[in-house]
Amino acid sequence: MGFFDTSDLLEARADTEELMKDACVVVRPGAKSVTDPATGKVTRASTQVYTGKCRFKQSQAQANTKVAGEHVFTEQGIRWDTPVGSGPFKVGDMVTSTASEMDEHLVGRVFRVEELFNQSQATAQRCRVVEVL
Hints:
Helix content: under 10%
Largest sheet: 6 strands, antiparallel, barrel
Number of domains: 1
Strand content: over 45%
Radius of gyration: 17 Å
Distance between the termini: 49 Å
Shape: globular
């Protein structure tokens, strides 16, 4: 028996899922935009790739200020966890918080997947997301 065997990993995954008190929906934006001829509104088709439990956790206490053209904006990284086996997620996927047992202010907020974290003995699927304002 090793230091960290399969039964330990499965137990750690179950413990980690117990901490996931939030819920979300993840959609993947499509490649093409469609313009409604009647309204002129431009939308992008998307595909839902996940709905279920999750956890949002602030990954750093500082924000990054960036400049694009003449626009200055602030970005703050957040770690977003889902159960192992959810996804697979891709950079650019959009995460909408649909419920939160511990923080009602999370509900309705939208985040974009910025980075994927991969690991062979993960206790959760983790991604870095930023809020879309």
